[in-house]
TrEMBL record:
GO molecular-function terms, A-Z: orotate phosphoribosyltransferase activity; orotidine-5'-phosphate decarboxylase activity
Catalyzed reactions per annotation: orotidine 5'-phosphate + H(+) = UMP + CO2
Annotated Gene3D superfamilies: Aldolase class I
SUPFAM superfamilies assigned: Ribulose-phoshate binding barrel (SSF51366)
PROSITE patterns in UniProt: OMPDECASE (PS00156)
EC number(s) stated in the UniProt entry for this protein: 4.1.1.23
Protein name per the record: Orotidine 5'-phosphate decarboxylase
GO biological process: 'de novo' pyrimidine nucleobase biosynthetic process; 'de novo' UMP biosynthetic process
Keywords carried by this UniProt record: Decarboxylase, Lyase, Pyrimidine biosynthesis
Similarity comment: family membership: Belongs to the OMP decarboxylase family.
Alphabetized InterPro entries for the sequence: Aldolase_TIM, OMPdecase, OMPdecase_AS, OMPdeCOase_dom, RibuloseP-bd_barrel
Pfam families: OMPdecase (PF00215)
Length: 268
């Protein structure tokens, strides 16, 4: 059976990486494939979103460097909320440098991302050294990495052969690379000696049920287009939820739409 026709739970066993298996299982347990892009700029707003939306999401996605009053207590409280509501934390750091540099950016600096973020991501642009560097830090902590195979923004250069090469890099590093940021499940010719396609997670930003895009190149698609037509696994929604008058009501709508599309995909 093709991977996308299997349930999240059934797919969990084929991942060696414990973060990938945990995510797949908790999605079925909580019946949600919704991730919130919590792009707010204060500690109080970020923690409030994590607490009120926690029950409805599988992944809480952060841009920690936009929080003006960041401190270690924010991390402590965010980790407690992740426990309370059973969601994973994904720092959308988009690393893009040589292996030796990203190793330090991931483990040190102000944010110590590796110490609290279950998942982070990297551009494949610099070549495989970026994965090797991040892996030295992240694998002993059982973290997972997503490669940016595609982006949602207009005119993105991440397409075609670039995206296909991202898949090949991921195949060679399946212990640490758990999937992709992308717009569709990528079908890439098998490598010599490879009998079947490896399963990967596809987390997809650029999701809105109300807008076609923004004034800065963002392009939106619906949960149904992402989960059913493009066979991705997680919808990532930012302004469509936290920008609404009632974020909990909106999160409920997105969660239901994402889940209905998943069930349709499974043929349930
Ligand atoms: F890799 C990507 C991408 O291709 N598009 C994105 O929009 C990441 N993003 C992130 O998803 C972006 O940095 C925001 O954090 C979020 C989308 O937010 P929106 O408010 O739903 O447009």
């Amino acid at each position: 059976m093709p991977h996308h026709k299997s349930s999240y739970t059934a797919r969990a066993a084929s991942f060696k990486n414990p973060t990938a298996s945990r995510l797949l299982k908790l999605m079925d347990e909580k019946q949600t494939n919704l991730s919130i892009a919590a792009d707010v700029t204060t500690k109080a707003e970020l923690l409030k979103l994590a607490d009120v939306l926690g029950p409805y999401i599988c992944v809480f996605k952060t841009h920690i460097d936009i929080v003006t009053d960041f401190d270690q207590d924010l991390i402590k409280q965010l980790e407690a909320l992740a426990q309370k509501h059973n969601f994973l934390i994904f720092e959308d750091r988009k690393f893009a440098d040589i292996g030796n540099t990203v190793k330090h950016q991931y483990s040190q600096g102000v944010y110590h991302i590796a110490s609290w973020s279950d998942i982070t991501n990297a551009h494949p642009l610099p070549g495989e050294g970026i994965i090797k560097g991040l892996k030295e830090v992240g694998l002993p902590l059982s973290r997972g990495l997503l490669l940016l195979a595609e982006m949602s923004s207009a005119g993105s250069l991440a397409k075609g052969a670039y995206s296909e090469e991202a898949v090949r890099m991921a195949r060679r590093n399946r212990d640490f690379v758990i999937g992709f940021i992308g717009q569709r499940r990528l079908s890439v010719p098998l490598d010599a000696g490879q009998e079947q396609e490896d399963d990967f997670l596809y987390l997809t930003p650029g999701v809105s049920m109300a807008q076609p895009g923004d004034s800065l190149g963002q392009q939106y698609r619906s949960p149904e287009q992402v989960i059913l037509e493009s066979e991705c696994d997680v919808i990532i929604v930012g302004r469509g939820i936290y920008g609404a008058a009632d974020p909990v009501a909106k999160a409920t709508e997105y969660r239901e739409a994402g889940w209905a599309a998943y069930q349709k995909r499974l043929g349930v």
